[in-house]
Automatic annotation (TrEMBL):
GO terms for biological process: formaldehyde catabolic process. Residues 223-342 form the Alcohol dehydrogenase-like C-terminal domain. The keyword Metal-binding applies. Homodimer. Pfam families: ADH_N (PF08240), ADH_zinc_N (PF00107). One of its GO terms (molecular function) is S-(hydroxymethyl)glutathione dehydrogenase [NAD(P)+] activity. InterPro entries: ADH-like_C (IPR013149), ADH-like_N (IPR013154), ADH_Zn_CS (IPR002328), GroES-like_sf (IPR011032), NAD(P)-bd_dom_sf (IPR036291). This is GroES-like zinc-binding dehydrogenase family protein. The lineage of its organism: Eukaryota, Viridiplantae, Streptophyta, Embryophyta, Tracheophyta. Residues 49-181 form the Alcohol dehydrogenase-like N-terminal domain. Its cofactor is Zn(2+). GO terms for cellular component: cytosol.
Length: 395
């Protein structure tokens, strides 16, 4: 392969001198649940067949990263491990067989990949659950050979997370989990498309297909919930009700598009009764973004009988089952879950990115903080304290 040098946004050089070689770089490594991440030098090995090594320029922190760091799910307790799954960057090198991505391309990694060959990717039923690269918290190595591409300086393997592991200067990702984006797009903003914004907005556009004039209730106004609000706004929803126990969320919620706000702690009745009063029988669509089963029940009951649809987006670590009686579904209400907003990542996300470039979707409101990567533990605490939506870390 010939020599190639390409300036990226930070003025760094993507050079052919590193191709095929082990790279020493900084990464934030988790060694135990709920312990501070250790920012240290690690080794990142070259990409193998159908893999890509990327220079991460920006990464942000999602609640899934926070939950994994806390060890809330047994599947996440694999150490040492590099978390992170929202990022953007530039391709440093590609492995054998990769034809759709080249050195220097601007990319966004995605935790829910698309191989384009399996029965799910080829299905006309609009499934985005790839057989090989769907989200899998149990997976901690590369799909090709079951080995890690990260190691400590003394040779111990460092495990992967959600197909991406973006809390590192460099990471190796299966090509099925990378989306090539227009180089004119802001890489800072495109980071948000890796998870939160795509998940929330896609739930509105793809899963629910909300129509103009519809009424919507959003339970939980974190980044995913506010992305739902943004999606409902772009679809022309007539009423968007935000529900959250943190009344400070009303400010950001109204900036993005909520028309009404409810704090359940301020009510003397169930939330669903209040929403039914406000909307003449219930909303057309509700979105549960809190990961709480009691909230899910309120979201379901807040929809209008006959046609109401509830979309589940929250991650539910509890072993409890759905708090619904089967007969409650006979009144016409429906409930469905959405993974990654039902976007097929590689084939549909580039179009979504172009819509963001054109200003159809407002991304600026989601980035509440920016920090150098060395302050990643402070960024984790901001999210844990409910003080940030997305903290963008500069690598």
């Amino acid at each position: 392969m010939g020599s190639l040098e390409s300036n990226n946004l930070n003025g760094d050089i993507i050079s052919s001198h590193t191709i095929g070689k082990v790279i020493t770089c900084k990464a934030a490594v988790a060694y135990a649940a709920a312990q501070p991440l250790v920012v240290e030098e690690i080794l990142v090995h070259p990409p193998q067949k159908m893999e890509v090594r990327i220079r991460v320029l920006f990464t942000s922190i999602c609640h899934t990263d926070l939950s994994a760091w806390r060890g809330e799910n047994e599947a996440h307790r694999v150490y040492p491990r590099i978390f992170g799954h929202e990022a953007s960057g530039v391709v440093e090198s590609v492995g054998e067989g990769v034809s759709d991505i080249e050195i220097g391309d601007h990319i966004v990694p995605i935790f829910n990949g698309e191989c384009s060959e399996c029965v799910y990717c080829k299905s006309k039923k609009s499934s985005n659950l790839c057989e090989k690269f769907r989200v899998n918290p149990m997976k901690s190595t590369m799909a090709g050979d079951g080995r890690c591409r990260f190691s400590t300086k003394d040779g111990r393997p460092i495990y992967h997370f959600l197909n991406t592991s973006t809390f590192s200067d460099y990471t190796v990702v299966d090509s099925a989990c990378l989306v090539k984006i227009d180089p004119k797009a802001s890489l800072q903003k495109m980071t948000l498309l890796s998870c939160g914004v795509s998940t929330g907005l896609g739930a509105v556009w793809n899963t629910a297909d909300v129509e103009e004039g519809s009424t919507v209730a959003v339970f939980g106004l974190g980044a995913v919930g506010l992305a739902v609000v943004e999606g409902a706004r772009t679809r022309g929803a007539s009423r968007i009700i935000g529900v959250d126990v943190n009344s400070d969320k009303i400010i950001k919620g109204k900036a993005i598009g909520i028309t009404d706000f409810i704090n359940p702690n301020d009510l003397d009745k169930p939330v669903h009764d209040k929403i039914r009063e406000m909307t003449d029988g219930g909303v057309d669509y509700s979105f549960e973004c809190a990961g709480n089963l009691d909230v899910l029940r309120e979201a379901f009951l807040s929809t209008h009988d006959g046609w109401g649809l509830t979309v589940v987006l929250g991650i539910h670590p509890t072993p409890r089952l759905l708090p619904l009686h089967p007969m409650e579904l006979f009144d016409g209400r429906r409930i469905v879950a959405s993974v990654f907003g039902d976007f097929k990542g590689k084939s549909q996300l580039p179009h979504f990115a172009n819509q963001c470039i054109k200003g159809v979707v407002k991304l600026d409101e989601f980035i509440t903080h920016e920090m150098p990567f060395s302050k990643i533990n402070e960024a984790m605490q901001l999210l844990s304290d409910g003080k940030s939506l997305r903290c963008l870390l500069h690598l």
